[in-house]
Amino acid sequence: MHGTRPSTRYHLALLCLASCALLATAAGCSHTSSSAPSGPAADLSEELTTGGGPFIGESSAANLDAAGYVQHEYVAAGTAVSYRATEPLTADGRWSFAEDGSAPYRTRILVRRPADVSRFSGTVVVEWLNVSGGLDGNPDWTSLAAEITRRGHAWVGVSAQLIGVAGGPVLVIAPGAEGIAGKGLIGLNPARYASLAHPGDGFSFDIYTQISRALRAETDALGGAAATRVIAAGESQSAVALTTYYNGVQPRTGAFDGFFVHSRASVGLPLVEPGKYADLAGGFATTNTILRTDLDAPAIELQAEGDVTSVLNSVAVRQPDTDVFRLWEVAGTAHADRFILGPLADSTPCITPVNAAPLHVVAKAALRRLDGWIRDGAAPPEAARLATTGTPPEIVRDADGIAEGGIRIPPVDVPVDVLSGVPGPNPDLFCILLGSTTPLSDARLAELYASPADYLQRYDAATDAAIDAGFVLEEDRATLRAHADPSRIPG
Questions:
Q1: Domain assignment of residue 113, given as a range
Q2: Paired sense of beta strands 325-330 and 299-304, if any
Q3: 363-410 pLDDT per residue, tens
């Protein structure tokens, strides 16, 4: 974090939840927009430079210099519209919205881009910052940073929601974050952010649209460059917001070329009146919805094992893969994990160690495949769903408690620990979202592996299989190898 470093529980709260369209193109056709979508664009001409550095909730400060990247912060300003549903919101996601009110706005964007503009790939990942803990957090940057920087993409974090800018009631009050959570940017650093003004979450969707449009023109925010491809990204509550955006707003605007929907729940973010906060908890009482299937912009939905049958209940909205949709469910993973928490992972109140599965390697592959899908129509691989049984559905597990089905990664398929979306005994919502890591006994490891060399051979073979299947990138082979632990194997 720049400015104020979050406590462990504050960072967890950032990630938690209280829990006219084109026909889809045929496979093999490019999804790149032939021209920039028309409509009002945000004014990004004002850079924020006073009052110290930018505020962003992340477990470790980004090492941008090492990646050859720079960071700048800008005001995004304009007049946005809100929306109302013209028909009941149905489970097929084919929602019809109409413009409702209008209001001026001044929010902020945080930009991370190559210092050398000639390295810019033309792709911008626009993350709807997560406000579940009462402050802007960037979990998708954390998961995707290595892929973004090695490919030369730009990343833009958008303070899309009211609470992130002006503060307000917090979904989860995190112990250790008293005096911070719920203040918003203005309360945290008035010297830098006092000029910002947000008209309410009903306007968030159009604010997000207008920022996307602005990035398609040559702008100082991108070092004088313009975006060729703009990808919407969001995790957790922000993925819930993207569900509403994809189903109701994207058909009107065509503002984004693709969608990276990470750990969504079964519902969309509610539309609200001016000046109001979206009631995320109340949204769970609304209609479960899939992502509509009649748009041109492709979407990858990435779900951790812990998202499928726990509080997010994504199993209720599973849908088949299509020419514009892929669902990737990853066995042995949790909504938030050791990688997301970074140095804070050992300070949680969860009794059982938090999940250590590297979901981020699959997230990076998903972004690579989505970017390629948009560029040249090369569809990502289809993935098996996690195995479920019963009513309500539960994950099918093997004798060790490891989930069956789904995307398989080596630390899960060649285990020394049981990596699971199931949490330990602490019923705290933080811990429910963090899953668990439970060591296998020496006796069980001796049953599984003849020797450390046998373990490594099988682990490397599993890595090859994940890379060959397209769910892990060759560039992340070493990252996966670092999760191998032959020292645990008897003999």
A1: 1-297
A2: parallel
A3: 999 999 999 999 999 999 999 999 999 999 999 999 999 999 999 999
